[in-house]
Write a structure and sequence with these properties.
alpha/beta, Transcription Regulator spoIIAA
Length: 102
């Protein structure tokens, strides 16, 4: 499920962050960044603990959210990224873009 809960800086990613789910997650993520701007939050979090599958389109959404947040001077941190997500970040050499927490 892609919902934001308290604290308002946390966005929950879907179980499968793939082509079929990317548009909904992209919309929710961009809205989340805009709320963080309005709330003057210094950081947002994307909780990937439930995400078991990610493809290139899912990574593209994460990169987009990171870029938009950075443009607004907001840091973005990935929480609970499992093996599949971490492997995909390493394979695509995108791991350097993200702060990762367990």
């Amino acid at each position: 499920m892609m919902t934001a809960t308290e604290p308002s800086e946390i966005l929950f990613a879907p179980v499968r962050l793939v082509t079929d789910t990317r548009l909904d997650f992209r919309r929710a993520g961009l809205e989340h960044v805009e709320r963080a701007v309005q709330d003057m939050a210094p950081r947002i979090y994307v909780d990937l603990a439930a995400t078991k599958d990610i493809d290139a389109s899912g990574l593209g959404v994460l990169v987009l959210l990171q870029k938009r947040a950075r443009e607004k001077m907001i840091a973005m941190r990935l929480l609970g990224a499992g093996t599949a997500v971490r492997q995909m970040l390493l394979l695509t050499k995108l791991d350097y873009l993200f702060e990762l927490d367990d």
